[in-house]
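From the shared-data thread, chain only:
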Amino acid sequence: MKKSSLLLATALFASSLGAKEFVNIGTGSMTGTYYPVGGAICRMANKNPNIKCSVQSTGGSVYNVNNVLKGELSFGFVQSDVVYDKYNGTGKFEGKPDKKLRAVMSVYPELLAMVVSKESGIKNIAELAGKKYNVGNPGSGNEFTTLKVFEAKGFDTDKLGYRGVLTVSECPHALKDKKIDGYSFVAGHPTANITDASNSLPIDILNVDGEQIDAMIAKYPYFAKGVIPKGTYEGVDYDVNSIGVKAVLVADESVSDEAVEAVVKGVLDNFDEYKSLHTALKSVTKESLIEGVVAPLHKAALKVYQEAGIVK
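Structure, as tokens:
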């Protein structure tokens, strides 16, 4: 069955039986931010008696966007840079745009954390040369963003002593066991993953800034500057300057209106409760739910935002 009809057929069948519509959200590592925030969204969506929402741990942004478009996921968390490239057929998806991709909401800002052990002595990106650094598992948003930063800084991955491809959930243990000297993680902060690492051994987080990064932001406008405040993680007693994207919840255009409405209305109608479910959501506003989506809104999401006065 074609991807465009699979979810629709499932929804219609469930409706004909008077049953719940089952939907799932592709997130990321269980120790990351996508997974618990996905759980928060499902909790809100499940207030609709016709919807049963569940969370699926996945490999991250690229996996999620591809499988949303295949109809294997109802929704997926995807970094805004990956959303942009997939919709427009640029970057990693050069020449392969998919105009059926739809945004549902902009969830929260994410910042790149380049975590290194203090013992490694690494203080900047150039000093990664010869070191064991986990760029990210293939197809992940961590890899995607890190490679763009390396490109901007003129750092060739061939300079690494070892280019790691571990999933981010494997990295805190690998760092503690000295299998790697550092790793990249694009996430809402704080995240349990980096907290686990900082509780296991002394860490630093590299600054990602400078003229090259300014030029990168001008070239790729879905990136923006941000700060991970000092004290966010044990032993990191300085503000970390970095760049970030938005975590965007996406769907294929064929996902049912009722499922999309359940997700968006669930969040809007229970906004204070929603924001209390994870620290990454504390700075979110109703207006920020449509900022940085970089793909057209699903028609059902657009309708809800218009009814709420968020979209004029």
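Strands lie at 21-26, 51-56, 75-79, 101-117, 132-134, 162-164, 182-187, 203-206, 224-228, 240-252.
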